[in-house]
Amino acid sequence: MEGCLKDMLTSKAVLWDKDGTLLNTFDSWIDVERKLARAMAAEYGFSSVKEQDYIQRVLFRLGVKLDGTVSGQGVLASGTSEAIIEEFYSAFLEMDSFISEKKQSFFSLAKSKLAEILEQGPITPIPAQGAQEVLKFFKDLGLCQGLATSDSLANAQRDLAAAGFLDYFTFIAASDTIEQPKPHPCSVYAFADFCGVSPSEILVIGDTPVDEGMAMAAGASFVAVLSGTGVVQDFSSKVNAFHNLLELLRFFAKG
Fold first, then answer.
1. CB-hemisphere CA count at 13 Å for 26?
2. The Cα angle at residue 16 between residues 13 and 20, in degrees rounded to 5
3. Where among 120, 150, 174 does a domain terminate?
4. Which of 83, 100, 147, 216 has the fewest Cβ atoms surrounding its Cβ within 10 A?
């Protein structure tokens, strides 16, 4: 554990996760997924009872718990848009009133409906407590800061700009700009090349085991932040976990 802490303190670059780590967008996304499920149910003529059944199946598959929180191991917490729509399709196939539909047609319709929903009511990102302070702290240290997200580049830039964080980042690995999404390590490798450092000199900060998996596969250091979707039990025993970004900042400030 001491070695892990030393690696964190001597890192030359920081690769951040977005949703659940720097920003809280899940309340907005749950609302969007409900609207999308409702729109898809209407498109295929589901009754009101079947519609509610479909919505609940979708939310369950996405990792939304009964209390409305999001599981750190769920698709909504770390999956790409394609992976999320895949769950919509799987829930669709489960319905008793199954209507034969080709996957490609379903995906095309879902993406169109999603675009309409987001145009009517864009996602509202809420900055995590301490996010501004820790981003500025790392910037003042001269560390290269990047983002690895399962979201699209356009969505990532939009969310970061809305929170006032975009200028802190010189690198963004998004689902539509990187060869393989998390937990594949290619985001870390691309960031290392961009910053001119080795993967072992990078600190990855995230809130899900997918973030940890990406970091470990690349040979980077990793720290978990528990103010997002993840809980201690989601991570391996060797992971250093902080309750929030302010606690992380205090650790680095005194280190």
1. 28
2. 160
3. 120
4. 100
